[in-house]
Design goal:
Blueprint lengths: L25 H23 L4 H23 L1 H6 L2 H27 L2 H8 L2 H11 L6 H24 L1 H27 L5 H23 L8 H29 L1 H8 L2 H13 L7 H20 L1
Helix pairs in contact: 1-10, 1-12, 2-4, 2-9, 2-10, 4-5, 4-8, 4-9, 5-8, 5-12, 5-13, 6-8, 7-8, 7-13, 10-11, 11-13
Length: 309
């Protein structure tokens, strides 16, 4: 969550993406594959980087702003100056929620397995559906069926981790809460994107996230420097893979591929991250965790298909 996910939650019936009447663009499918690969590596890379999780979150956002900022100021200066007050406030609120998401999810990777943390943080679409229901939007029956199935998987997975250690269960709770924060971030971002370009919104959002994380690091006494060069290169790789290639490309292709295709494909992050963590870090989840992860993924697929209808 991976950091945070793109605004690809199932839309209400009146705004759901229509079924495409033509083949999906090959280039965008390739870009989506690159995006999934970038997002999948984030969990194992965060777990392996020898720096505080909050510091990693702070620097990946600062570096992203450093890369996107000059381009945005050069090509989108007029748009940035013309952002309305409401859109600006919503973008800032989205950035604050993204900071909360990072604050919760990245430490969870040090407390429970990469597979569990990734599976639980990808429940963002479920939280999105629940938040939309509180706002008066009714979801199709298949969406609610998928929600029930996915939360059954969550219960099984947390039960498995509780049998391992209370620390692992706390990591699960942090990952779930991170998914909830990401849901709020996505809903606010979807509203801002009605009138603001991806570059303009991303710059405001990531800048706010960096400021929020800086404040949290200072309050928590988290060191922000003093690591060997190898750690800095890992943070740079994380920023490029997860932030620029992963989430930015997902935001790029969601308009052409539609929310359902994009959100369903991003679910491949969970098995991808679990496989990378197993082969690279030797993190093999207990056998009982696999059925739970399958239930979560099955539920999320049903949510995506129901949202498309």
């Amino acid at each position: 969550m991976p950091a945070a996910r793109p605004a690809t939650a199932p839309a209400p019936a009146s705004a759901a993406d229509p079924r495409p009447s033509h083949p999906l663009p090959t280039l965008d499918l390739l870009l989506l594959a690159v995006s999934i690969g970038g997002i999948s590596i984030s969990g194992p890379l965060i777990s392996a980087t020898a720096a505080p999780a909050l510091a990693i979150a702070f620097w990946r956002n600062v570096m992203s702003v450093g890369v996107l900022g000059p381009y945005a100021l050069l090509r989108h200066r007029a748009e940035l100056r013309g952002i309305g007050r409401r859109a600006l406030l919503l973008a800032v609120a989205a950035g604050a929620l993204l900071g909360v998401h990072f604050t919760l999810w990245m430490p969870s990777l040090r407390m429970t397995s990469v597979a569990s943390a990734t599976a639980l943080v990808t429940t963002t679409p479920l939280w999105t559906i629940l938040l939309m229901r509180l706002m008066g939007v009714r979801a199709p029956r298949m969406v609610w069926l998928g929600t029930v199935v996915a939360f059954a998987g969550v219960l099984v997975l947390t039960g498995v981790d509780l049998s391992l250690s209370p620390r692992a269960l706390l990591g699960d709770a942090l990952a779930l809460a991170a998914g909830l924060a990401a849901a709020g971030y996505m809903l606010l971002g979807a509203e801002v994107r009605r009138t603001v370009s991806t570059i303009g919104y991303t710059l405001v959002c990531y800048t706010t996230t960096a400021v929020v994380l800086l404040g949290i690091c200072l309050v928590a006494g988290t060191p922000l420097a003093g690591w060997p060069a190898g750690v800095w290169w890992q943070i740079v790789l994380l920023m490029v893979a997860a932030q620029l290639l992963g989430h930015s490309l997902s935001n790029r292709v969601v308009r052409s591929l539609g929310p359902s295709v994009t959100s369903t494909a991003i679910l491949l992050e969970t098995p991808g991250a679990a496989l990378i963590a197993a082969l690279w870090l030797g993190q093999w989840p207990p056998a009982a965790a696999y059925p739970a992860v399958v239930l979560i993924l099955l539920g999320l697929v049903l949510v995506a298909r129901g949202g498309r209808r």
